[in-house]
Amino acid sequence: FPYYEFVDRSATYRVGSLFYAIYFI
């Protein structure tokens, strides 16, 4: 469970960063 949560958090952070980069550009 913790590993899955960690992966989910990492994926969410990556998606958020990508959207932020697109919005910034």
Features:
mainly alpha; 25 residues; 1 helix
Please specify the SSE layout and strand pairing:
Layout: H1 2-24
Description of the molecule:
With 25 residues, this protein is an all-alpha fold. It has one domain. It is 92% helix and 0% strand. It contains 1 helix and no strands. 0% of the residues are buried. The mean pLDDT is 80.
Briefly say what this structure is.
The chain has 25 residues and is mostly helical.
Largest sheet: none
Total helices: the number is 1
What is the rounded Rg? Answer: 11 Å
Q: Please indicate the count of domains.
A: 1
Oligomer: single chain
What is the chain-wise order of helices and strands?
Answer: H
Q: How would you classify the helix and strand content by structural class?
A: mainly alpha
Low-confidence stretches: none
Task: Report the mean per-residue pLDDT as an integer.
Answer: 80
Distance between termini? 36 Å
Assign an overall shape. rod-shaped
